């Protein structure tokens, strides 16, 4: 047996490491946000439609791959006039930018889970952010035989970094809407396939 045959045989015997791929379940996932109003109270809202995929290897969690899309047209703060304003060109301009996206690039372990770095695109602007993802817990089987896994992630952004600069000053000082926006993403996914794990 020559060296080429040995090499070919060794390649064939190398185990293929697979990770689980999950499709985000829109009906059990959402992205929520919190901003300060008049610098004295919190206004909370959410986007009800989150789609995409997550590839996760429980033995190698830092190889996680996330590709998620948030439908900006679904914004809801429980106040119709405010929601209409948020969908307008003053804020999300959903007619021009109907979605936001996050695509992961790398991850590292933290005390509570993972810090996942990736590109976040909002209002046509892409910037790198770090999602703090908590430990998702074990995979479970639902009553219909589907394998599910869930997780939560948080990040704080400055909306001005994405061109969302509408505001008004108030007489007593401060502004109507804070630039700092706290975001919490809760996702639940169903396992759909396996994929080669990233080394």
From TrEMBL:
It holds the Pfam family YceI. Keywords: Signal. The keyword Transport does not apply. The keyword Repeat does not apply. SUPFAM superfamilies: YceI-like. Residues 21-190 form the Lipid/polyisoprenoid-binding YceI-like domain. This is YceI family protein. It comes from the Bacteria. Residues 1-19 form the signal peptide.
């Amino acid at each position: 047996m020559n060296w080429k045959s040995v090499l070919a045989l060794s390649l064939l015997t190398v185990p293929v490491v697979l990770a689980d791929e999950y499709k985000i379940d829109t009906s059990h996932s959402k992205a929520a946000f919190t901003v300060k109003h008049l610098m004295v109270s919190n206004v909370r809202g959410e986007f009800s439609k989150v789609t995409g995929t997550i590839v996760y290897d429980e033995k190698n969690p830092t190889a996680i791959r996330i590709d998620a899309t948030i439908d900006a047209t679904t914004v809801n703060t429980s106040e119709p006039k405010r929601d209409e304003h948020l969908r307008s060109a003053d804020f999300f301009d959903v007619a021009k930018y109907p979605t936001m996206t996050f695509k992961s690039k790398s991850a590292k372990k933290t005390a509570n889970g993972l810090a996942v770095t990736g590109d976040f695109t909002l209002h046509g602007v892409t910037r790198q952010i770090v999602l703090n993802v908590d430990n998702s817990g074990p995979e479970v089987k639902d009553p219909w035989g589907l394998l599910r896994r869930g997780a939560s992630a948080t990040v704080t952004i400055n909306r001005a970094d994405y061109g969302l600069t509408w505001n008004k000053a108030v007489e007593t000082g401060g502004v109507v809407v804070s630039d700092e926006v706290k975001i919490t993403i809760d996702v639940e996914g169903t396992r759909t396939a396996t994929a080669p794990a990233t080394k």
